Structure prediction request, 365 residues.
Amino acid sequence: MTASGKPRSRRGQAEMIGLILIVVILAIGFLLYVKFSLDSETNTFRAKFETSQLGQSFVTSLAQSELQCGTEPESVENVVQDIARGETRCDDPPSTTEELLQEHLIAALKATHELWGRNYNLSLVRGVGQMEEPLDSQQLPALTSSNYVGKECGPHVPGVTLDYQPIELYPNPGRVELRLYLCP
Amino acid sequence: MKRHKRMRNDGERRGQIQFGESLMVVIILVFIMIIGMVFYFRVSSGSVQKELSYREDVGAVTLAKNVLALPEVRCGRLAARGPGCIDALKLKALANILADHGSDTRSVRNYYKDLFGRATIKVHILDLIDNNEEIVLLYNQRPETNLTESRQFIFSTFYDPVQGRQQLAYLNVTRYARRAS
Prediction:
């Protein structure tokens, strides 16, 4: 018996019930936290879906868009094929074919992703079999967003999306990929 | 007698303390339950809002893709200009019809109203040589009050068969939804 007259066992039971209540409340809190975490995963998926939609349509359309090649317009796809084969029919002294293509790509990015404040990385990669190398790292370096200096977008960034447009070099072997990374 | 009275007073006081203790426990429990309910309802309404917003975004993407697939605007097969190409002449002809408020074009406008719903569809044509941008307003049905907007961009090319030139372009699709505030 306690001083208050209640049996010790009954008081112990009440304390146990209190303890169980605390555990139940903590469990509910934990479940809500897990629910929140899953919701944010869904958001990430949604963001990726939207970004990828934009990126894929961009590279596909960019490959079909035309730039001035001498007196005639020529598609980016054809100009890239020319560069990969070492042809220079678009040269317009003092500008080279590579410079004309680079200007076109920069203008396209400035009018769209740069304007919308997106962090991007656009590059031309030549692939033969399993081997990969930049198409022309000197004259056609990867183009990155000027708004994100020091936080360059690339495959190492978490949540990045990659979209690419292959440009076949047939009858020559291999292909060139127009690769666009969009970072969150 | 005195001892008996003092013992009764002690018992009453102890009872009061125990009653207050129980009351505090009940108040704290009710308080925790109210906080939990508020939290739960806030999370529920938040997830409903997210789901609605997601559906609106997906709807805007679908609408943009549907516009690109319309034979009224897309490039003919003979032009062989690749997928997602918009024909300049077709686009401008359709935009003119939809901008015309005359009675002759009412049935056409109603057809596109059913097809596109409450939305604004613009085509941005990028002239990358002269660094110009031309915007063609294809369709505009913007409700006046109490609306939420969901905007999507999708890239395309814009082919002018007269000039024989294919430019980069993008569709700017805004879908409007009436939602209770």
In short: The interface with chain B takes residues 4, 21, 25, 28, 32, 35-36, 39, 42-43, 46, 50, 53-54, 57-58, 60-62, 64-68, 73, 75, 104, 107-108, 111-112, 116 of chain A (CB under 8 Å). The CA atoms of residues 162 and 181 of chain A lie 5 Å apart.
